[in-house]
Amino acid sequence: MNNTVVITGEFKRFIKFFRNELNPRGKWLTPFNVISIPIILLGIAILYVRFTQGLGSVTNLSQQFPWGFWIGFDVVTGVAFAGGAYVITFVVYVMRIEKYHSIVRVTVLNGLLAYIFYAGALVLDLGRPWHIVNPIIGNSFGFNSVLFLVSWHFLLYMIAEFVEFSPVIAEWAHWEKVRKFVSALTLGAVIFGITLSMLHQSGLGALFLMAKPKIHPLWYSEFIPLLFFVSSIFAGLSMIIFEGTISHKVFKNLIGEKSHYSYEEIILGLGKGAAITMFVYYFFQSLIFIHEERWTLINDFWGYWYLFEVIGFVLIPCFIFAYAVRNRSFGLIRIASVISLIGIILNRLNVSVIAFNWNAVNKYYPSWQEIIVTLMVIFSEIWVFRWIVVRMPVFSKTK
Amino acid sequence: MEFYYYVNIFETKGLEYLLLICFLVLFILLVRYISTPEKKK
């Protein structure tokens, strides 16, 4: 009886606290709000049409091109960008490199939101979205299907990331006992999350193994899973550098002076990691290039396009990262991170959209509605990220 | 009588081994390069 009273009282306190937290903070008329609000509203209107009149009413998808921009960018690219979470948690909780501890919370939050929004965008692209629960509830299990593995991993990884982030929520809500309990679960969740991440980052690549006749041979390889996994490491590191740079400007008042100083050292470490993984990735690409005797394919548009991607967006940013780290040039590290992020977008879109059905007579181009909905997903994620960062102790441990 | 013959590295995949050796050497050089900061003049 006593416990019930305590829980009811606490519940009432939390509801009051949460309603108070819902009140907007800061100015409404900011350039980001002015741009993002109309796009989000337009995106919601397009989604209404999509769910009432079907995929064909707003997308250029067809039987020949069942996967388009939503899968290629939102899901395949977005999940690669979220790779920073498993890399940083591995470095901090498993390798015990404490230097990166201050960015764990924000990186995990980024990863969690990326999975919720980008992997969640998968629902938009399913002709019958209510079937998304089938792999989970056991209706038509496809044990041998890569998609079965990926869907289970997405679900489990989101739960693992939520557990990793839950101490922040408990701290924010002033639930001390809950915080102690969920903090004890962190290491287990991290190890579980890293295992899941490694498998589904490569699993996303493995999805394309069955499309051998459709993907241009310069992008198709039986090693796509390995390439997707290795590239997700430097994609994640570059995303942390890019996102951290913006966060350190936008949320300057939430971050202490000491953190600003240590962040420069963190950026150097991340740049070093990105340079090394990009070099390894470039080596794998070269090895596959030779192993599959691809030089016969190089002297046409697709060959030049492939070289543009691999040299322009992997090898060059790798060298820029290395040069910038050696010379402690933070500006150059940021430039290299942007180039490598563009490279990841290009690579994922090449595999899933551009070089997919490359010899088809009718090409696929995303409709304007597909682009607006993608922007809506990105802006919505930033809105939620901002809401959480402003209210919860993401950048610092105590409020 | 034995004859010398040249190995076709494309068929024997010798090129892949060469690439691997080059990679290992370049990898060590890269790690050394980024691990030692540039001395200020």
Structure description:
- The complex is a heterodimer of chains A (399) and B (41).
- Chain A has a single domain, classed as Formate dehydrogenase/DMSO reductase fold (Up-down Bundle).
- Helix content of chain A is 72%, strand content 0%.
- Chain A has 14 helices and no strands.
- Chain A has helices at residues 2-22, 31-53, 69-81, 84-94, 104-119, 122-125, 134-137, 146-172, 176-206, 224-250, 257-291, 301-326, 330-354, 368-391.
- The longest helix of chain A has 35 residues, at 257-291.
- The model of chain A has no long low-confidence stretch (mean pLDDT 89).
- By secondary structure, chain B is mainly α.
- Chain B has helices spanning 9-12, 14-35.
- Chain B is rod-shaped.
- The model of chain B has no long low-confidence stretch (mean pLDDT 79).
- Unreliable stretches of chain A, pLDDT < 50, 5 or more residues? none
Q: Could you describe the largest sheet of chain A, including whether it forms a barrel?
A: none
Computed over alpha carbons, the radius of gyration of chain B is 18 Å
- Low-pLDDT runs of 5+ residues of chain B are none
Largest interface, C-beta within 8 A: A-B, 16 and 17 residues
Tell me the Rg of chain A in angstroms: 22 Å
